[in-house]
Amino acid sequence: MIYNNASRIIRAGLLNSVRFNSTIVKPSLSPALIDLRIGKIINIKRHENADKLYVSQIQIEPTPTPTPTPNPTPTEQESTVTTAQAQAKTVQVCSGLVDFIPQSELLNSHVVLVMNLKPSKMRGVKSEAMLLAASNESQVAADATNETATEGDQVNANVNAKAQVQVELVNPPMSLPLGQQLFFKGYKPADCTNFKRLKSNKWVELAGFLKTDSDGRVIFDENSDGKSSAVLGSDLNDDVCVVKSLKNCQVR
């Protein structure tokens, strides 16, 4: 989810998406189309022209090993690490998390990035990727609708619903390195180095099947008979992506 232009499209059609359809619907697309990578937020600031947005620099490859300096002072050690980190590849991401997660909590967080969406400009600032996050927004909206049906107070229901919305970043396994390719188990991409750009309508469909399960694990839920949901992880070990507390919630 990272509340960029693609996220607005998803929110607009969420209640009519395949996940909330009363019939069992299988996805027509494979989640292997999504380029998912591990990154680390190494710098973050408020967007100068948008109150709800952060602008983050996210490292997407391991920090180069610096050349050792004999008997370095603490200042020299810190400078060497900073220089090496600056040499690592980064992407810039705008995220609408100001109302949900403190800036200090986001700094140095390991995150999951959707890398093959079309870059966009948000209030004049380029956003090159999308952070993956879970939200209880759809559950809160459903509760507000039920409350309105009984009380007939739409305004109060909307205000209360907004206050109850929570957002949590998807946490990649700390055992995996920055830049590591992630995929839903059973859907490993045939070529992890050459992803096609994912069009907005295709992303909207695929995002309709992303959620957290009852253990907080991130899954691709096909909602199909007799088939287990695919968990987001890697082929390096059995560790999987999770969220802090939002279970059985939407991920986008």
TrEMBL record:
GO molecular function, one term: tRNA binding
UniProt keyword Cell inner membrane present: no
Ranges for domain TRNA-binding: 30-156
Keywords tagged on the record: Cytoplasm, RNA-binding, tRNA-binding
Domain of life (superkingdom): Eukaryota
PROSITE patterns in alphabetical order: TRBD
Record has Cytoplasm as a keyword: yes
Protein name per the record: Unnamed protein product
